Amino acid sequence: MEILIAERRRFKRYSAVPIKIYLKKQDQFEFTEMIDISIGGLQVRTSKTLEMYEEYECQLELPLVDGKDLIYAKAMVWRIDPDEERFHEKRDLSLSSTPIFRNTISL
């Protein structure tokens, strides 16, 4: 008997996008590996212990031809999944995000 699971996502998710993600809970932004991103949020991989519904500041760094563009948002942990590849090391986290402001930086 074959079991089919319906896709519940409303927005297409994009992976292999050259965006750097940094999360901040209190003191400073720390790099977090991005798995994919969509209009409604993003999925990251981290070895940090995060709790469901915790809120973070999120910094997305987008590369530009003449520098980089920074987008700041508030993010909340929405789902935590075990990382099948590195089960004992890391977890996959889904974050819902709300943009706060945007700042373009040229190097």
In short:
The protein has about 110 residues and is mostly beta strands.
Provide a descriptive summary of the structure in words:
This protein has a six-stranded antiparallel barrel with strand order 1-2-3-6-5-4. It has strands at residues 20-24, 30-38, 41-46, 55-64, 67-82, 91-106. The radius of gyration is 15 Å and the shape is globular. The model is unreliable at 99-107 (pLDDT under 50). The chain has no helices and six strands. Strand 2 (30-38) and strand 3 (41-46) form a beta hairpin. The chain is mainly β and 107 residues long. It has one domain.
Write the layout of secondary structure elements.
Elements: E1 20-24, E2 30-38, E3 41-46, E4 55-64, E5 67-82, E6 91-106
Antiparallel strand pairs: 1-2, 1-4, 2-3, 3-6, 4-5, 5-6
